């Protein structure tokens, strides 16, 4: 949805007595799916082995640009620090 349309809708309904900001945001915005990892480190591994095993887990592939998204489209794979973001 065009951000201007969302703003117009917001300005129309924000002063209504039963206005629920959370519901409005949930209905007009979306979050990208979070990738869950079932990675479990092996305490027997050396530090080098541990780090080597983390690279594929922390690497993200570029995605197509989504209109109106604030996410920047990147041209190549990138690393997500700690897998948290």
TrEMBL record:
Biological process according to GO: trehalose metabolic process
Database matches in SUPFAM superfamilies: Six-hairpin glycosidases
Domain of life: Bacteria
Enzyme Commission number(s) of this protein: 3.2.1.28
Top EC class, one word: hydrolase
A Pfam family: Trehalase
InterPro entries: 6-hairpin_glycosidase_sf (IPR008928), 6hp_glycosidase-like_sf (IPR012341), Glyco_hydro_37 (IPR001661)
GO molecular function list: alpha,alpha-trehalase activity
UniProt keyword annotations, A-Z: Glycosidase, Hydrolase
Protein name per Swiss-Prot or TrEMBL: Cytoplasmic trehalase
Organism: Salmonella enterica I
């Amino acid at each position: 949805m065009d951000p201007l349309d969302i703003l117009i809708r917001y300005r129309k309904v924000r002063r209504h007595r039963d206005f629920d900001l959370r519901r409005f945001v949930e209905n007009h915005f979306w979050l990208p799916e979070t990738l869950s990892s079932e990675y479990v480190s092996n305490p027997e591994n050396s530090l080098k082995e541990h780090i080597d095993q983390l690279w594929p887990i922390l690497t993200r592939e570029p995605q197509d640009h989504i209109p109106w998204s604030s996410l920047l489209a990147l041209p190549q794979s990138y690393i997500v620090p700690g897998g948290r973001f």
